[in-house]
Amino acid sequence: MEEAFASNWIAPLGPHVDAFEREFAAAVGAAHAAALSSGTAALHLALHRLGVGHGDEVLCSTLTFVASANPILYQGASPVFVDSELATWNMDPALVAEELDAAAGRGRLPRAVVLVHLYGQSADVEPILAACDRHGVPLVEDAAESLGAEYRGRSPGTFGVFGAFSFNGNKIITTSGGGMLVSPLPGEIERVRFLASQARDKAPHYQHSTVGFNYRMSNVLAALGRGQLRVLNARVLARRRNFALYAEALSSHPGLSFMPEAPHGSSSRWLTVVLVDPLEFGATAEDARRHLERANIESRPVWKPMHLQPLFRDARRVGGALAEHLFRQGLCLPSGSALTDDDRARVIETLLATPRRAERRRSRRGGRPALATGRAETPPASSEMAP
Ligand SMILES: Cc1ncc(COP(=O)(O)O)c(C=O)c1O
Predict the structure, then answer these.
(1) Residue 180 alpha carbon to ligand 1 centre in Å
(2) Listing from the earlier edge strand, what are the strands of the sheet with 300-301?
(3) Contacts of 149 (CB under 8 A, 6+ apart)
(4) In Å, what is the CA distance from 40 to each residue of 74, 144, 165?
(5) Ligand 1 centre from 182 Cα, in Å?
(6) pLDDT tens-digit profile of 339-348?
(7) Rounded to an integer, what distance in angstroms lies between the CA atom of residue 65 and that of residue 142?
(8) In terms of pTM, does the model score above 0.90?
(9) Pocket residue to mutate for ligand 1, from 166, 273, 306, most atoms within 8 A of Cβ
(10) Given CA atoms 240, 241, 246, 251 in this order, what sign does their dihedral have?
């Protein structure tokens, strides 16, 4: 960054952008990469390049952050949300295949599939890619949360026509804000760079023949990204260590279980996510979140599925019950790479000290614990647990 300032290459573009693209592509094993202003911009340009437009449908994971789905709306298309599978919590390959077969039968295939790799874990890409290839539907991977993960020895995000990454402030490495779009197709990435720079034609005067976007990354932020790339492996180790220590301390506890790691790869464990079964634990995930909050510890609900969002109330969906279950019971624990043993110990101790509903009732009434007799309280409705 000092070099970027000293050379007065601040923005737009500059040598650090080119170097960051090269180094990032090498790090994830992608052929080509374009550095952009955000992961959302990367997804938007991917759908733009695929010609997604009015009247089109695009399949998208339902359990995700809204940034996966918003670009579908930017392009005027309609999302169709697909449920998760238990092994990865990501898009269910069987449901995608079924939906694509049915769509082919109806004579109306989706224009693209947006496959999200959530919380540091790769989706089961191969069967999804096979179903897409069978029907000629392009795959766009949203790997915003999964830089540093592996799927069969490769990085998620490098299997589809396009893969999007994010360097937002909360990600495993950050440029404060930023993103990267990768592709095996050199012509596509060249076109993306052009579109992301206001689509300025090659001419000394300012000439434009097509609509463009202001989506390029600045030279200063690319310099930051190059520095961050050097600590990626250390960050993955730190995040995996967080997970291992949380799991060691908590997984034998009744009612607590963790996001699984699918056998096809290794998760970066960007976030450690615990499931709280209210019947077994005696309190809901939301009870635990509020208790942690009172101790000044920030935890977050699992993403509220897109098919439950008011924004997408009219969208079609394929299943959704598993994503709803994960939303109701899931809690993302503090997972920063700089957490200390003391920090984690405090989180663990506080989580386990969450007042149980039966205990609370008993202390209010001086009576017998309701949960001990099996009359458990139902967890709060989804709306109470909205992020
Ligand atoms: C799953 C997912 N997709 C896309 C994005 C968008 O990335 P950005 O914030 O860089 O636009 C994020 C995070 O912010 C994300 O978590």
Answers:
(1) 11
(2) 256-258, 272-276, 330-333, 300-301
(3) 117, 120, 121, 122, 143, 155, 156, 265, 266, 267, 268
(4) 11, 9, 9
(5) 15
(6) 999 999 999 9
(7) 10
(8) yes
(9) 166
(10) positive
